[in-house]
User: Fold this.
Amino acid sequence: MNLRDISVGRHAPSIINVVIEAPKGSRKKYRYHAKSRKFRLAYEFSMPVPTEYGWIPETIAEDGHFLNAMVIATNASHPGYVCEARPIGVLKRRDRDHHVICVMLGDERYASVKTISDLDTKLLKRIVQFFEPYFELSGWLNHSETVEMIRAAHETYIATPKSRSAAPPRDTDLEDGEISEGTDDKVDATNTVEETAEAADLDNQGEEEDADSDN
Assistant:
């Protein structure tokens, strides 16, 4: 299944699906290519990602791309993993490339976290520090505002012709530094989606972002 065909989630906007591009603790950022159904290494972050990092399918944000999502979880996953998550807030950026903050559904460590204020201040600081050197931030949205942002982004996606959606206009041939999404991506009883990417050696590849990037 093409990862771009995954829904925003049966219980959206209160519970959403998130496609992971960069696992927690990784410095590598990948981009998904719909035609080849592969992830390509796009660039490396200057510091490890403090959470799982990815996008919310079937959304179009203010900047014209999928809504970004940061999923707080105990364990790291891998590019192409799809999870169900509970949105709790939004970290706003001046460039409108906002990031929805979520907690992994079914992760008992964060079961009681309902809003941004419920998070450990050290984790919040790490999230802010991850963006602060490069982007001007403009505060937080609360839970209700976050849910409304996701709802609006999904409605924009529905109202937008497919040819003008957040999906890239073209795909490129596979190169070194790419991994396959795999074929098994159905939601199971533990509220996660089966792994959709197979491991590969990605250490030596440094790709530039190209015209078909998502975010």
About this structure: The chain is about 15% helix and 25% strand. Residues 3-180 form a domain with the Inorganic Pyrophosphatase fold (CATH 3.90.80.10). The chain has a mean pLDDT of 81.
